[in-house]
Amino acid sequence: MNAVEEYLRGTQERAVDSLCDLLRIPSIATDAARRDDITAAAGWVRDYLAGIGGSVEIWPTAGWPAVFAEFRARESAASTVLVYGHYDVQPTGELSRWTSPPFEPRVDSTGRIYARGAADNKGQFFLQVRAVEAWMKTLGAPPVNVKFLIEGEEEIGSPNLPPLIRDRRERLRCDLVIVSDTPLWRANRPAISLGTRGITGLEVKVTGPNRDLHSGIFGGSAPNPIAVLCRMLARLHDNANRVAVPGFYDDVQPIPDDLRAEWRALEPDIQHEAAEIGCPFTGEQGYSTLERRWLRPTLEFNGITGGFQGAGSNTIVPATASAKITCRLVPDQDPDRIQSLLADFLRSIAPPAVKVELSLRKSGARPYSIDPAHPALRAAGKVLEDVYGVRPVRVREGLSLPILPMFKELLAADTVLLGFCDPGCNAHSFDEFFDSRDLLRGSMAAARFLAQVREALR
Amino acid sequence: MNAVEEYLRGTQERAVDSLCDLLRIPSIATDAARRDDITAAAGWVRDYLAGIGGSVEIWPTAGWPAVFAEFRARESAASTVLVYGHYDVQPTGELSRWTSPPFEPRVDSTGRIYARGAADNKGQFFLQVRAVEAWMKTLGAPPVNVKFLIEGEEEIGSPNLPPLIRDRRERLRCDLVIVSDTPLWRANRPAISLGTRGITGLEVKVTGPNRDLHSGIFGGSAPNPIAVLCRMLARLHDNANRVAVPGFYDDVQPIPDDLRAEWRALEPDIQHEAAEIGCPFTGEQGYSTLERRWLRPTLEFNGITGGFQGAGSNTIVPATASAKITCRLVPDQDPDRIQSLLADFLRSIAPPAVKVELSLRKSGARPYSIDPAHPALRAAGKVLEDVYGVRPVRVREGLSLPILPMFKELLAADTVLLGFCDPGCNAHSFDEFFDSRDLLRGSMAAARFLAQVREALR
Questions:
Q1: If residue B433 lies in a helix (H) or strand (E), which one and from where to where?
Q2: Cis-peptide, bond into residue A160, ω within 30° of zero
Q3: Is some CB atom of chain B closer than 8 A to the CB atom of A214?
Q4: Which of B284, B326, B352 comes nearest A315 by C-beta?
Q5: What is the four-CA torsion angle of B91, B94, B98, B100, rounded to 10 degrees?
Q6: Inter-chain CB proximity B214 and A428 less than 8 Å
Q7: Chain A partners of B355 at a C-beta cutoff of 8 Å?
């Protein structure tokens, strides 16, 4: 173990450089024009894994390819873990909001690496790669068999991963999945995660007239799609900020009392976030902030557009208006059922004078939970406490990792979330960063976990 | 009169070519980058007016310049009319929606001239220019003194026109203003207009978090500005499609019974428009379509924007959402008062968790009415009946011409609206057109009106 950790410490500077090389590739999966960048990112991952002694393959899909690698333990009866990650990244949003360009990584004086994808997920899957690299370069093999599956479509909901996993089920067989794609509880304080929220969504488009009309000539006598859309969207929540779609809460499980108590004790820890994001916390009446994030479902508007968007004014009654909606789901909500309920409700409240079209998001995800008594969770808790010097807290994730319920269903394997990014790392927003110190601590924890998990899964 | 009309017929082909030259200049006033185009358009107007014998000046303003010209009648005691128009045009909107490029004029087989600004207002002020040209080229002088004021900021609400008119009041002195910026009642059937609606507006911007947040991490616990904006906008109308801003209707005058009766008789004439715009008429309960357009005020959403706008999805709680709102006003609503009422109401319904910022539109316009018994209106009615062979109908305009109340206030002159574009001419939308036959008939009517008005104003 000492040699492994020495290796990680001794090669940390080079590790940061390598990660920056990967971060320079703008592998945005939502953008079809990024084919070359996606290919370059997948190639980078393939080459790195091969370079540290893995047996590596590019697995094509109907969309962007995945990278698969295997590292065998010496012991033939060793257990097998599968590390899942993704090399694709979110779109950048408005470039002017970034302090430095999103695809020109910048390491500040505190060691933070700023770039799109630094935390989500390039930096985080890379620390798992580094853990295996350390075992390979010092002892020649990891303590358990390690497989990597690094895909390129996570940020678009992994549409081609289910068939890939189904087709490659034998190659992917494992006893446990490890994913580093979640945050620390707070800087220097790790977390043990009990699960993730699911997701579903749709886009709603309202069409009134077949073209933009002069609001002087027609104003007051034709349906205004923005007005219609706003009235429809305003009906999706009630005054208590509960989702007002009939049936939405039918399958929602109550929050266990022990978790409610633990989480309420954590609330003071997150009060500073309100100042950081510049607005007070709000949400569904009757729940604490962490309950709202972790075990209450949501209906959020991600974008809205309609009519004249430029500077100045253009006095029109616009032809169309549309909005993007996603729901975060909790056990035991089903993404398809919630999507249907939402679609049915929107159709039911659409006024007759307009046309309402719905584009259903194809890539839903179920919520996921791991048994709090799972031995791998205990092993993870010990490792995190050893590396960070403090007991991890029990949390859930508000975000969705579609892959977790998928692995449970297709490989019968549970997933341990070993997350190391700062909770304020700006994933999906401007100035995303990953702290290079967490790259090091994370790689050390990941390396130890491989040894611990050998015992836990025996 | 015969020589004048012969001239117009004989030079009509060249007139279409000249108009197309002007239409090629993309003089979009809302776009600060268009300085050269604006200058070119103003120069074109100046050169044309000088070329037909006018004494012409460019009048600079704090914004885009205006063109002023004078043509003197032989009779020293002759009355004076002022022709007002504008050489600036609306933005094009999405270029892909145009059948042919908006600044490459296309004349179709029926004689329609397609281009941005063809109807609003280049083609329409040009027919007034043509009328004076015909008098000048045949008889050497018009029957009354004619002044032209062709400005470059109408589509942005003429912000610099009031000081210009105040400063140049003596030069602009006149007995009557003539404006061609309104439509025919329908193709081949002219209209006599009794007035215009006013306008005011504002932009409302809601800010929640200070940056886009990951909807997985923060979703459900932070205010969503799109949700807040939609709920606020949804409260601006009631279920009867009345504007729900307190005090909004306080100063609205009831529609006179004779006009209600006349306008209800015109309703069958406009039923085809619902098919053309592809949606049924809707609006304030208790009023006919024409009443809604002409003598009822409106509150319209011209544009809305917030969060992720691109293809695919970006699961954020956005930082901001905003909407552009304009109100059309009727006698005796005051634009400043309505703007204040709207702003106050929006502030009063803004929830405390978000920041609501209002940008007040600076260039409001009052509604305008001319006395139905004004002698110039009778003269206009006779001329239109002579040229079109059918009695014009009494209408109002739903649109706003800020210049009309301004001339009344600053020059004590009423305005006659002599409009010749097709009511379906797509002003402010895609595929705007002006029929070259109406360019000819309009110029003939305008030429006759100059003779008629000499008697009427005596």
A1: strand B433-435
A2: no
A3: yes
A4: B326
A5: 80
A6: yes
A7: 279
| CA distance linking residue A22 with residue B406, whole number of Å | 63
Query: What pLDDT digit, counting tens, does each position of A286-335 carry?
Result: 999 999 999 999 999 999 999 998 887 889 999 999 999 999 999 999 99
* Inter-chain residue contact A30 with B397, CB threshold 8 Å: no
Answer whether B59 touches A (CB < 8 Å): no
Q: Which amino acid is at B322?
A: S
Task: Count CA within 13 A, CB hemisphere, residue B381.
Answer: 16
The rounded percent of chain A whose pLDDT value lies above 90 is 88
Place of tokens 């009494």: B394
What's the CA gap between A47 and A89, in Å, rounded? 19
Whole-complex ipTM:
0.82
Chain A within 8 Å of B89 (Cβ-Cβ)?
Answer: no
Q: What is the pLDDT of residues A218-277, one digit of tens each?
A: 999 999 999 999 999 999 999 999 999 999 999 999 999 999 999 999 999 999 989 999
Domains of chain A: 2-196+367-456 (3.40.630.10), 199-262+282-360 (3.30.70.360)
Which residue of chain B has the CA closest to A320?
A: B303
Six token digits for residue A249: 């809460």
B415 Cβ under 8 Å from any chain A Cβ: no
In angstroms, rounded to a whole number, what is the distance separating the alpha carbons of residues A132 and A115? Answer: 24
How many CB atoms neighbour CB A317 within 10 A? 31
Question: Distance (Å, rounded) from C-alpha A324 to C-alpha B308?
Answer: 8
Task: For residue B279, give the nearest of A222, A279, A428 by CB distance.
Answer: A222
User: Could A230 and B227 be called an inter-chain contact, meaning their C-beta atoms sit closer than 8 Å?
Assistant: no
Strands A213-214 and B320-329: unpaired
- Which structure tokens are listed for A188? 């220097």
- The mean pLDDT of B2-13, rounded to a whole number, is 96
Residue of B nearest to A203 (CA): B313
Distance from CA of A304 to the nearest CA of B (A): 5
Q: Which of residues 143-172 of A touch B (CB under 8 A)?
A: 156-157
Q: What is the pLDDT of residue B402?
A: 83
Task: State pLDDT tens for residues A394-422.
Answer: 999 998 888 899 899 999 999 999 999 99
> Does the distance separating the beta carbons of A297 and B220 come in below 8 Å?
yes
Q: In three state form, how does the secondary structure of A397-442 look?
A: CCCCCCHHHHHHHHHCCCEEECCCECCCCCCCCCCCEEEHHHHHHH
Yes or no: say if A148 and A393 are a contact pair by the CB < 8 Å rule: no
Binning pLDDT at 50, 70 and 90, where does residue B227 land?
Answer: very high
**pLDDT category, B314, cuts 50, 70, 90?**
confident
Spatial distance between the Cα atoms of A125 and A397, rounded to a whole number of angstroms: 17
B198 to chain A, any CB pair closer than 8 A? The answer is no
Rounded CA-CA distance A198/B66 in Å is: 61
* Nearest in space to A222 (alpha carbons), one of A353, A328, A110, A93: A353
Check if A37 contacts B (Cβ < 8 Å): no
Across the interface, do A215 and B298 touch by the CB < 8 Å criterion? yes
Name residues whose C-beta falls within 8 Å of residue B234's C-beta, 6 or more positions apart in sequence.
A227, A230, A231, A233, A234
* B208 contacts A279? CB cut-off 8 A: yes
- Number of inter-chain CB pairs under 8 A, A vs B: 325
A265: burial class by Cβ within 10 Å (0-12, 13-18, 19+)? exposed
Cβ contact, residue pair B226, A313, below 8 Å:
no
Confirm if A280 and B353 have CB atoms less than 8 A apart.
yes
Q: What pLDDT score does B221 carry?
A: 96
Give, as one character, the DSSP assignment of residue B89.
B
The whole-number pLDDT of residue A30 equals 84
| B188 at interface of A, judged by CB pairs closer than 8 A | no
What distance in Å separates the CA atoms of residue B281 and residue A221, rounded to the nearest whole number? 5
